[in-house]
Amino acid sequence: MELDATMFFVLLFFAVVFISQALILPAAGSKAKHKELSERLKASQSDLDEETRSLLHEHYMKSLTPLDRKLVEFTVFSNLKKTIELSGFHWSLGRLLAVTAAVATTFCLITVILRQPWFVSVAAFVGTWVIMHVGLQQKISNRLSTFEEQLPDALDIMRRMLQAGQPVTQAFNEVGNEMPDPIGVEFKNTFNLLNYGYDMRLAIMQMAERTPTVSMLAFSSAVLLQKETGGNLSENLEKVSHVLRARFKLVRKIKTISQKVDCRHGFSSYHHLYCF
User: pLDDT digits over 17-67, tens only?
Assistant: First the structure.
């Protein structure tokens, strides 16, 4: 009986590892793309003067809990906090660490009570943290994908507001009021920053850092380019919206074709195995 329980926990650990890999690998390309965009944004922020960077850091620290302010001083926890923000998970860093540690300790104690070998307890403890990491990565992928799908509609709302003679700040507010999460929240946050007196470039860069996607990079480039060189912003947004919709249709078409090819290969493999 004890051997059966041990085998169960060992198989459970390997199942968690394999499932986590299956969830992470499909998003590996998009994750690398988002990381590259984040590095570009950091390079752009390095061009800002010391006063502006100090203002950004001060605004960010004010949004954290006292415990989180202490934790983000360490690189590991700072990176985890950024991951939580990208995922849109509404928990503080301290709360997430506390809950995950409590769950991991509980599973570890259960294996001890059941008199399992030490490596099963370690596997249960580590597996809990792996599941937390995989869950956050999956939420990031889903959130950014949803944001990219919503962005063309948001640009259409902005374009209509600009054509009606409204300022850009009010266009951000309108998108924040009309569009659902996650894009509604991001545009509303940007509107609030602009109302507080933040520079347009600073507010847009903050938004792009929270949603590092190719679509957001195109939108931010159109807005900042118009601010620096002038021109008709509504026409630029219309062009960007058209390109993003065409890009999204192409991506969906490629995914559909890839899924069909995978299904055919899978059916062919099972057919050969059955004949064998």
Answer: 555 544 444 444 444 455 555 555 555 555 555 666 676 677 778 878 889
267 is written with which tokens? 């059916």
Angle at 171 between CA 144 and CA 154, to 5 degrees: 35
Rg (CA), the chain: 23
Amino acid identity of 117? P
Q: Is the pTM of this model over 0.85?
A: no
Half-sphere exposure of 230 (CA within 13 A, CB side): 0
Q: Answer for the pair 68, 92: CB distance below 8 angstroms, yes or no.
A: yes
C-alpha pair distances (Å), 252 with each of 92, 99, 145, 170, 259: 34, 37, 12, 33, 11
For residues 21 and 27, give the distance between their C-alpha atoms in angstroms, rounded to a whole number.
Answer: 10
Question: Which helix (DSSP H) or strand (DSSP E) does residue 149 occupy?
Answer: helix 118-163
pLDDT in tens, 161-203: 999 988 889 999 999 999 998 999 999 989 988 888 788 888 8
